[in-house]
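Notes continue from the previous slide.

Worked example: a multi-chain complex. Inputs as given:
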Amino acid sequence: MNLLSVRNLRVTFPTDHGPAEVVRGLNLDLGRERLGIVGESGSGKSMTGRAIMGLVPAPGRVTADQLTFDGQDLRDLSEDARRNLRGPAMSMVLQDPKFSLNPVIRIGDQIEEAMAVHGGLGKGARRRRMLDALISVRITDPERVARLYPHEVSGGMGQRVMIAMMVVMEPALMIADEPTSALDVSVRGQVLDILADLVSRRGMGLILISHDLNMVARWCDRILVMYRGEIVEELAAGGLYDAQHPYTRGLVASLPTIDDTRDRLPVLDRSAL
Amino acid sequence: MIHVEDLSVRFKDVRVLHDVSFDVSAGESFALVGESGSGKSTILKALAGQLPAWTGSVAIGGAQSRTPRDRARQVQMVFQDPYGSLHPRRTIDDTLSEPLLIHRLPDRDSRVLSMLDAVGLPRRFRFRLPHQLSGGQRQRVAIARALMLEPPVLLLDEPTSALDVSVQAEILNLLKSLREEKNLTFLLVTHDLPVVSFLCDRLAILNAGRIVETAGSAALRSGTLVSSYGQELFQRSTYG
């Protein structure tokens, strides 16, 4: 059974010129796998992630013919019920740890906070799980890191802390929205390894949202390409260079390569799409 | 055109640059690559006169850096974030005219218009504010601003890493064209090796405040960097 099934998902925002549809009839099925969603700014990829999480800000409106997570129809759930799912069942990693961590709370306390909110564990058990979560994102001295404030750690470490914060609740679905774009190439690999490990070891379903075509192509089991709120193409792992849709092909061509000898890069002709 | 010799920078007890030396000739495009914290942006800051203290010698255009006013005519900088580097409440016209006013240059009107043409922005954008422009358009404004005083040298600090790939291609093409037309010298800081292959003639690889290798772009394209760290960066860039 699919972990997540979405049919005809639409996200609409009212504007002065009438409603603007930013996600237009999107379908997707996710198993225990790594699914990549790529697209440029404004393609609706982040809004898709937020709609699944139930985090589309007002006055945005989300509609779907089907939105099923783990057998539950998300459309019928109250706001409270959705909130109770976020954390233990589904969670989201955002782009920049600098803006997503609370600057005045120690890292360990922040990670424990989610467990305290969702209840069930004593203080000692919470602490042990917090330290385990830090170890699972390859922080070798969790005791020390737990005592630090977010500004005392590097970007890569901050992003690992963010992932630890999600992992600690052991969600079945994780949506990572540009989890590595604020990071160095070297750290990027480590963060992706950690996520891959969580998918294979804990059987998590992962949606990786990114504008980085090469990274997604190398790393995901399956890729959806979004343009103007729609999926224009689905590709198998590593199949980026077999893409057929003119938008995908345009994007691939406009990327410089390490052995590039072209005098000019081809520019995407949007009017032709 | 750019001469850097034994440049060392220390922030309190931490030495962030160790005796960095390199030369960039006129019209050349040179890249500084390395990870965060390798010191590549610090070198740019020293060249732009934004560091209070450093040792060694730095010269642009043959002369030691003189007054800030002179330096502004010699070298200008384009920053990474097109959202943060423009004044949000000044029109494009204000942004582009200000350097001309400060340096008392004539023909402001025609200079602004021809610069808009040069960076491929429609003239009707002249009196708009930054928030009315897309990221790529803003980066074009930032490049135009840097070129208003016609400096021979441009310092580029990750100029395309905040942009979408299709927009990145447009900006990279623009930078390449401008360099050819105006015979500019580029010093580019980036961690993106493919961008170096496309835009630069040579590169220096920095690790922990030291240059570990200086090579031609041909060595980068063919994957024949000599240093082990250079090879490591190459591997990561190609295989992720």
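Summary box: The mean pLDDT of chain A is 89. Chain A touches chain B at residues 40-41, 154-155, 184-186, 188-189, 192, 211, 213-215, 218-219, 250-251, 254-268 (CB under 8 Å).
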